[in-house]
Write a structure and sequence with these properties.
about 400 residues; Non-ribosomal Peptide Synthetase Peptidyl Carrier Protein, Chain A; eight-stranded parallel β-barrel
Length: about 400
């Protein structure tokens, strides 16, 4: 089966419902998979704020097939997660196909996204992530295997990629063509190359070029810090929707703003510090519920600086929160913060999370010598990259 994909638009002229096969997404917004971030608790938190599709952390196909303990532990879904979306990584079509079948048959997954955009050296040095689309035949074989395995279950397969390895080795137009030919339901493009990682500015023109190049829906990704950015990207490119990553770090309410924006409503959430405290507590509570209190609080620590970005909370409090180990400690630490302190407007529209600088891409020996796929990616281990 080739998963049919379409969008319907509200009176605003903006994309409305996104349809991927039998999967209907009421707002064309996707939470990007992020290592160590998009676990079941965070997906639940974002889902509580607005409509959309919320994708898990990246897991390896070998990890799924070989029942790796680390990978299996990541395949956890919240009790209210009625749409189970998983991002799958792999470099071997056989393992990708087997993993897709297991996810559909045993885990009740409703959507599979394939990762061809990861810029991390430990992934690209084996020909995976953003390096893999350079091998056109291999890319087609992987996509065909995934789509064929998911077809009997009616599960749509999408893919996420980047512009290319660097400006001299672009792959996104060929990747879009191959995705369409193999029955992929939609393609998401991060408007940066692998060598850029998260530095510089996302190239929205490339997203628009891909939209014109293929007939399947294209989702735009890169530099969406506010709901208005998402609308500008869609208007500039003609994309069917957006994928949001770093912009929602410490700001899960961004999905509420995005849902309103795509519905043609005006809503810009500027929560006072008291409301941010409530959101922080809810996040920690969900983590504790899924992981146990001690581990959940440890996982929450990384989010503190994002939630408090721009607020006047002192360095000592921030350091203490970076060591929080119980929900009671969290409550005590934030108790004396000024609930009425307004949201720091200066923090709006600014990058969050990873940025870094351009770098040389680490690839397998001879990877760039040909594009026909005769050079195969290096075999990944079962748990090697689960989580990114």
């Amino acid at each position: 089966m080739t998963a049919a994909s379409e969008t319907t638009a509200p009176a605003t002229g903006l994309p409305g419902e996104l349809v991927l096969g039998g999967l209907r997404v009421s707002t064309p917004v996707v939470l990007a998979p992020m290592a160590g971030i998009t676990n079941a608790a965070y997906r639940r938190l974002c889902r509580e704020q607005g409509a959309g599709l919320y994708v898990s952390e990246m897991i390896t196909s070998r990890g799924v097939v070989e029942r790796d303990e680390t990978t299996t532990a990541m395949l956890v879904f919240d009790e209210l997660e009625d749409v189970r979306s998983v991002q799958l990584y792999g470099t071997d079509p056989v393992y990708i196909g087997k993993a897709a079948e297991i996810l559909c048959a045993e885990y009740g997954v409703d959507h599979i996204d394939l990762n061809f955009g990861c810029p991390v050296p430990k992934v690209t040095r084996k020909g995976g992530g953003g390096a893999l689309p350079w091998k056109r035949t291999l890319l087609g074989d992987i996509l065909t295997a995934a789509v064929s395995a998911a077809e009997p279950y009616g599960v749509p397969v999408t893919m996420k990629t980047r512009k290319g390895i660097d400006d001299d080795h672009l792959t996104y137009l060929d990747a879009g063509r191959i995705a369409q030919e193999t029955g992929v339901a939609a393609i998401a493009l991060h408007g940066r190359t692998v060598s850029q990682a998260y530095s510089g500015t996302a190239d929205w023109d490339a997203i628009g070029e891909l939209v014109r190049h293929v007939d399947i829906p294209v989702l735009g990704n890169g530099d969406i810090w506010e709901a208005g950015d998402a609308i500008r990207l869609v208007e500039h490119t003609g994309a069917a929707g957006v994928v949001v990553g770093r912009g929602c770090l410490g700001r899960p309410w961004l999905f509420r703003d995005l849902a309103a924006a795509f519905a043609g409503e005006e809503l810009a959430t500027l929560p006072a510090l008291g409301e941010v405290k409530t959101m922080m507590r809810r996040h920690a509570e969900l983590l504790a519920s899924h992981m146990g209190e001690e581990r959940g609080c440890k996982e929450f620590r990384k989010h503190v600086s994002w939630y408090l970005k721009g607020f006047q909370a002192g360095g000592e409090l921030r350091r203490s929160l970076g060591l929080v180990s119980t929900l009671a400690d969290l409550d005590a630490m934030v108790e004396h913060l000024d609930d009425h302190e307004p949201f720091p407007v200066a923090a709006l529209g600014t990058p969050r999370g990873r940025q870094g600088s351009p770098r040389r891409v680490v690839l397998p020996d001879g990877w760039l010598d040909d594009t026909d796929g005769s050079g195969r990616a290096v075999r990944e281990e079962a748990s090697e990259h689960s989580g990114g």
